[in-house]
Amino acid sequence: MNAMFASHARAAHAKVSASKVVRRFGGRFSAELGIDAASGDPAKVFQWFLAAVLFGARISETLAIRTYGEFSRRKLLSPRSLLRRGWDGLVEALDAGGYVRYDFKTATKLLAVSKTVLDRYKGDLNRLHAAAIDSADLEQKLKSLAKGIGDVTVNIFLRELRGVWRKAEPLPSALVLMAAVDLRLLPPALKNRRRCLEMLQQAWIADGNRIESFPDFEAALIRHGLELRRRASRPAPPQESGGRRGLLQMRFRD
Predict the structure, then answer these.
(1) Which residues contact 150 (CB under 8 A, 6 or more apart)?
(2) pLDDT tens for each residue of 22-64
(3) pTM higher than 0.85, yes or no?
């Protein structure tokens, strides 16, 4: 890390601590859904992939969470249960969760994913990870599970398996970078995503946290990034005295 970035990291750490970001915005989405993805249990890993597919569409996280709840309530959390329920049953569950805009294509996608996971990996996505040569190959294998599994879904899924799967090394998403710059955790001029990831991990460790819990910090930045994106789509209210710095201080006041 060069002197400019090291200086920025120290200054940012003094203003907004990584732990405060998690306390303010919340941690892993998998934990919010009651999924212990960090356990590496095949059933839990598949449940988190199902949730990642739901989060991956252009739909609010609130609707994705509600729809996952419908799947959980109907016990549609495994490849076999999804295939047994069939396309009509999955559309019904999606609609019940408010996932109406993408119900047909998502039902088709989930059936294709379930069949592929069973046929190629005996229902265990850990086998997919074991078969991958490296992180890039892992991402490609996940995308090949079904038509429509793209970069967004794969990033969501692997982000919370960082530290669980050795080859899960996704680079920070645009939302993470937007949030980190807004909170002055990264310099706006830094464009190298791998360097951004290193700096965020260093900030997390420097705040007294274990690297294994870094996915909580990354998820918190995603949550803030989503908030920033929503805010940008609304007319900006008159700014109070104190400017942006005052807003940051109010947001993270103990």
Answers:
(1) 56, 143
(2) 999 999 999 999 999 999 999 999 999 999 999 999 888 999 9
(3) yes
